[in-house]
Write a structure and sequence with these properties.
Elements: E1 2-7, H1 14-20, E2 25-42, E3 48-67, H2 71-78, E4 82-92, E5 98-106, H3 117-129, H4 134-141, H5 154-165
Antiparallel strand pairs: 1-3, 2-3, 2-4, 4-5
Helix pairs in contact: 3-4, 3-5
């Protein structure tokens, strides 16, 4: 038995999600009407991470089926500051059917935050992988970001590893 998961941030990149949840299997694209993507979730490293915020827009992402045995690992990977919503409604792009999925939304936001360059590159790589459209990619590339001065940051190294596994050797080229 498993659950549907709506990925809209760095977990859209399958190599990133599979490192966290080996059972994850892509099942389609989806959209969350009435939401927009921001990088305003407060992270322990001081940068902004992706979250959904209520807006007159539509956030795009990918649906994955994940085994229940991987749920605790996904919760740990998302970490503190996110609230898990197991009844988040999205519309499947392929057939327009509305389904409920698990996703994570920030409990507190700070709109002054910016994502690190490597993190924004992960999100863009996921959007490119899933062909979410040039307009969506352009929107993502417009986000201001910061260069991470800590080249040995564990989360940075993990992100760069996922990007390399996906064939992206120069992550800055995505920005």
């Amino acid at each position: 038995m498993g659950f549907l998961y709506f990925a809209y941030g760095s977990n859209m990149l399958p190599k990133r999600l599979l490192a966290r949840c080996p059972s994850a299997r892509f099942v389609g694209h989806a959209a969350a009407a009435g939401y927009d993507l921001e990088f305003s979730k407060i992270s322990k490293d001081g940068s902004g991470k992706a979250t959904l915020v209520v807006a007159e827009d539509t956030a795009r992402g990918a649906l994955f089926e994940i085994a229940n045995t991987d749920r605790a690992d996904l919760d740990r990977a998302e970490g503190k500051g996110y609230l898990r919503d197991d009844q988040f409604e999205v519309e499947r792009t392929a057939d327009g059917q509305r389904v409920r999925a698990t996703t994570y939304v920030a409990s507190t936001i700070d709109r002054q935050l910016k994502p690190y360059d490597w993190y924004l590159a992960l999100v863009i790589a996921g959007a490119e992988y899933h062909s979410l459209g040039q307009e969506y990619l352009t929107r993502l590339r417009r986000f201001r970001h910061e260069i991470d001065a800590d080249e040995k940051r564990e989360s940075r190294l993990q992100a760069l590893s996922a990007l390399r596994a996906d064939g992206i050797l120069n992550y800055r080229s995505l920005l």
